[in-house]
Amino acid sequence: MRVPLLDLGPQYRDIRKEVLDVVKKVCDSGRYVLGENVAALEEEIAAYCGTRYAVGVASGTDALLLALMALDVGHGDRVVTTPYTFFATAGSIARLGAVPEFVDIDPLTYNIDPGKLEERLAACAASGAGVKAVFAVHLFGQCADMSSINAAARRYGVKVIEDAAQAIGAEYRSKRAGSLATMGCFSFYPTKNLGGIGDGGMITTDSKRLADKLRMLRVHGSHHRYYHRYVGVNSRLDEIQAAVLRVKLKYLDRWMEGRIANAARYRELFTKAGLEGVGLPVESHRCRHVFNQYVVRLKKRDALRAYLAGKGVGSEVYYPVPLHLQECFKGLGLGRGSMPVSEKAARETLALPIYPELKAGQQRYVVEQIARFYSGRSPAGRKSS
Questions:
Q1: Which residues, 6+ apart, have CB-to-CB distance to 60 below 8 Å?
Q2: Pairing of strands 171-172, 99-102
Q3: Which of 200, 334, 339, 382 is most deeply packed, by most CB within 10 A?
Q4: Cα(53)–Cα(301) distance, rounded to whole angstroms?
């Protein structure tokens, strides 16, 4: 049996006519950038997330970058975040000449540890190092502990930005990701729960001042053509992407329910298989986890992954090298052992297929193969013992 990590084909086939119809309409209109579909999608995303404003940009990475720019983050400023996330989070900080201040993660949720965040903010304040912002990453589709994060940030006069690239539709205490801090940043990369047919991103906020500034920053800092208030960038959401995303947004909740149901089935299957050595995702009672990835913690992770590949099962490691150990950040002086929880997660975690069209039989096959590996009934399993 073949079980890919992600298969976008079934989703596209279900909405193919709708997608092609809106793409044709955009092509016929002759308006390809920042048109009526972008404006409409911004309103729809704001309403969906529960914010007053949303600003479409060219990618999730640009959403992070522009959110920092809107807060005037620049050379020498410090931005606190987690080392256990996709590179764009810290990369956007460094691109502005700011310094990433890494804080280790909670071992159960993989999100930033609020207690350690408080300690880092206190240490920076005591040393006179100015912290300008906190990037709170909602990793794998589960919101970080935003009450504690926001409270700590307020005590030190620091703004909080949600990196919600993997978490559209996720909830924390019945409020949706993107409405939990000063700004929320989303990615519409095709692998996301709401994915386009290319790159795209969005920034949500309740601040009119920030929304207006973001709209200028995405077009070279101008409000009127050729008149520039800021030094911005070229980061405009394409009209075709917005049109496709508007079609997909109508189905997002249904697709998320499919992911949540698949996660529940995995839990049942792993429990029945007696695989006690497999650490399943922990869902906070305060959160609605939307499972952009289904990440388990395992022994002999790399040997298992090779075995699964041989059996036709796709998987992925998110993330094999924590950001503080990346070569480009070696100047920060954070060696191995400085972020032990993140480093351990990088060695032990594996993402399994979770897309909403995944069949029950495919999930049974995945769990069966993992059980065979650990039972020693496979050559790979015995070899890795």
A1: 88, 165, 185, 186, 187, 188, 189, 192, 199, 200, 201
A2: unpaired
A3: 200
A4: 43
What b/e string do you get for 239-254 counting C-beta neighbours within 10 Å, with b at 16 or more? bbbbbbbbbbeebbee
Per-residue pLDDT reduced to its tens digit, 16-53:
999 999 999 999 999 999 999 999 999 999 999 999 99
Taking Cα atoms as reference points, which of 307, 315, 313, 259 lies closest to residue 3? 313
8 Å CB contact between 97 and 75: yes
- The strand pair at 349-352 and 294-297 is best described as antiparallel
Q: Supply the pLDDT for residue 210.
A: 98
Alpha helices by DSSP H, listed for the chain, are 9-29, 36-49, 60-70, 87-95, 114-127, 146-155, 208-217, 239-249, 252-273, 301-310, 340-348, 360-375, 379-383
Query: What is the rounded (10 degree) CA torsion for 128, 106, 46, 40?
Result: 110
Cα–Cα nearest to 79, from 70, 90, 88: 90
Nearest to 290 by CA among 139, 107, 137: 139
